[in-house]
Amino acid sequence: MDNLRLILIFSLAFILLMLWQAWNEDYGPKPVQDSPVAQTEIHSGNSLSPDEKMTHSEAPITPDTTSGIPSLGEPAETTSGKIDITTDLFTLEVDPRGGTILRLLLNDYPVSLEQKDVKFTLLRPTSPDLFVAQSGLISSEKGEAPTHESQYQAENQSYSMGDKASLTVELFWKSPKGIQVTKRFIFTRGSYLVKIEHRVDNHSGTSWSAREYRQLMRGLPPEKNGGSQFLYTYTGGAIYTPDEKYEKIKFEDMEEKALSLDVKGGWIGMLQHYFLGAWVPPAEVTEHFYSNVLSGPRYVLGTYSPSIEVAAGASYTFSAGFVAGPKLQDELEEIAPGLDLTVDYGWLTVLAKPIFWLLKEIHNLFGNWGWSIIILTLIIKLLFFKLSEASYKSMANMRKMMPRIQALKDRYGDDKQRLNQAMMEMYKKEKINPLGGCLPIVVQIPVFIALYWVLLESVELRQAPWIFWIEDLSIKDPFYVLPLIMGVSMFIQQKLNPAPPDPMQAKIMMSLPFVFTIFFAFFPSGLVLYWVTNNILSITQQWVITKQIEKAA
User: Fold this and answer.
1) What is the DSSP letter of 62?
2) Contact indicator for 188, 166 with CB cutoff of 8 Å
3) What's the CA dihedral at 456, 461, 465, 469 to 10 degrees?
4) How far apart, in Å, are the Cα atoms of 271 and each of 240, 278, 339?
5) Cβ neighbours for 489, distance < 8 A, ≥ 6 positions apart
6) CA 236 – CA 477 distance, rounded (Å)
7) Is the pTM of this model over 0.85?
8) Are strands 83-86 and 158-160 parallel, antiparallel or unpaired?
9) Per residue in 434-487, pLDDT tens?
10) CB count, 10 Å around CB of 46?
């Protein structure tokens, strides 16, 4: 029993070590660079669009980037700079060249509590973390459709939603032969879903055909350059298909093999900690998903529609949804099937999702995530009350048997076989399960890991305060008060457990509270709060049970 308990504890310690390494990697000091990527890299012509590397029944047409830029007669100064857009949720910068979303800031999410006035930047045209959203049309005839390289015209250089329920921003393009395209960005108040349209008006004398493509381009994140292999969050691509459901498309996967897949009712996205950008094509249309790797390195994940023919004098509107913002599960689930799975709880999603649901319901009642964690811990403790009670009774009985076990060891010395046989006979006679005391550890490990993912991956807990000095439950305790309380509580709990007869094992066990205190010093304070609450409840329950058994004896 002693060896098994030691193995279980060291298994948990190893898991904690890996998680601590991941946490320190993300929140430890990093050199930050913001070197601009040349516009020729973002607008690098054919290499950024669907190209001949993809396989499909109808090969995509490479966008034209060499023809002259048509003019709609607008003054040059109105289209020479970037277009600024402000809504209730976004602050955007759109490039008239191609209508590319170069920069997107989230108004409701500051960079940190120390920089509350600085908005979090999700999309940016600079390295590191280059991340832009591109879209355009591909025509069979050169120069007859605007790609993300084509120059658009705009009526204004800045737009603001103000108090309106929605905001529509339009860009205009026209070909020499009379094909006119209006690119629309439609924003809705309170929604992170942006509807992006390409309306085609065929004023030429012949029919015209093209397809719409949309793609996300991302640079290699800093943590991928020699970072820890125990990263707890995922940064990379993801797709959803009705057949395979949610699937990660890692940067390494894109380098090994280009994605080429026909999908109806899916989406593509680029994910990072707490936030995402995703294209959601029309659910009723069969689209082609593709990927590409460019120099930098830069990774492209995209989708394009079937070719659409527009008769002379007719019109047609291509449309798709673009999602950019926090991973709010309820909102993402309403936008598209499986989009809520981007909140990546890892292999314990089946346990983490109900934990988060319960935590959120508690928060709706109390309005504080810290107290919600404490109440959640109490509920979990009540659910496993009987199991814990049986385990603590077993440990109390084992503690009562320690003098007899020590006597057997003194009697049989180094004869392990006879010692184990005598101990098993004693356990059987006293009706004691030597493995019963290990159950609380076995039960707590998956719950602990699931809650760890919930606290780290759920954006709702980002920068969420509790009381006094705990202003952000998703980061470490700045004064290390909770880790110290956790270490003391773990030490007290050990004193209630039967001590290992082996002096070496006893010393190792006594050192664990100090080791765990160091680990937890770098953990998010919300997770430490859970562990402290769990320890206090366990100590109370175990102390009462131990006293009852000792009194009965």
Assistant:
1) P
2) yes
3) 0
4) 13, 8, 11
5) 532, 535, 536, 539
6) 29
7) no
8) parallel
9) 665 566 667 767 877 888 788 888 899 899 999 999 999 988 899 999 999 999
10) 15
pLDDT of residue 101: 97
- What lies within 8 Å, CB to CB, of 127 at 6+ separation is 33, 34, 35, 36, 37, 219, 296
Distance, in Å, from the CA atom of 223 to the CA atom of 78, rounded to the nearest integer, reads 39
Strand partners, 303: 214, 289
Please say whether the beta carbons of 127 and 219 come within 8 A.
yes
Question: What is the pLDDT, as a whole number, of residue 470?
Answer: 93
Is there a contact between 323 and 332 (Cβ–Cβ < 8 Å)?
yes
pLDDT at residue number 107: 96
Residues 6+ apart with CB under 8 A from 350: none
* Whole-number pLDDT of residue 441: 64
Phi and psi at residue 193, to the nearest 5°: -95, 120
How far is 430 from 401, CA to CA, in rounded Å? 9
The interaxial angle of helices 481-496 and 525-552, nearest 10 deg, is: 20
CB neighbours (10 Å) of residue 265?
19
pLDDT < 50 positions in the chain:
1-4, 6-7, 22, 25-42, 44-80, 225-231
CA dihedral 66, 72, 76, 77 (to 10 degrees): -120
Three-state DSSP at 108 gives: strand
Q: What are the φ and ψ backbone dihedral angles of 212, each rounded to 5 degrees?
A: -100, 135
pLDDT of amino acid 364: 95
Which one, of 351, 192, 368, 371, lies nearest residue 277 by Cα?
192
Which neighbouring-strand residues pair with 121? 105
CA atoms of 322 and 135, how far apart (whole Å): 10
* CA–CA separation, 97 and 43 (whole Å): 9
What kind and span of H or E run contains 358?
helix 349-366
Instruction: Please report the pLDDT score of residue 450 as a whole number.
Output: 86
The C-alpha atoms of residue 198 and residue 137 are separated, in whole angstroms, by: 8
CB atoms within 10 A of CB 79: 21
Looking at residue 2, its pLDDT comes to 41
**Separation CA 288–CA 347 (nearest Å):** 29
d(CA 337, CA 281): 12
DSSP state of 70: P
Conformational region of residue 385, where left means phi above 0, alpha means psi within -120 to 50, and beta covers everything else = alpha
DSSP state of 126: B
Show the CA angle centred on residue 385, arms to residues 381 and 387, nearest 5°. 120
Q: What domains are there in the chain, each with its CATH number?
A: 2-22+353-552 (no CATH), 73-344 (2.70.98.90)
Q: What is the DSSP string of 399-428?
A: HHHHHHHHHHHHHHTT-HHHHHHHHHHHHH
Which residue type occupies 390?
A
Structure confidence at residue 452 (pLDDT) = 79
Burial class of residue 324 in the structure, from the number of CB atoms within 10 Å of its CB (0-12 exposed, 13-18 middle, 19+ buried): buried
- Look at the block and give the residue holding tokens 């664990």: 512
Q: CA-CA-CA-CA torsion for 355, 241, 279, 59, nearest 10 degrees? A: 160
Dist CA 376 CA 160 (whole Å): 42
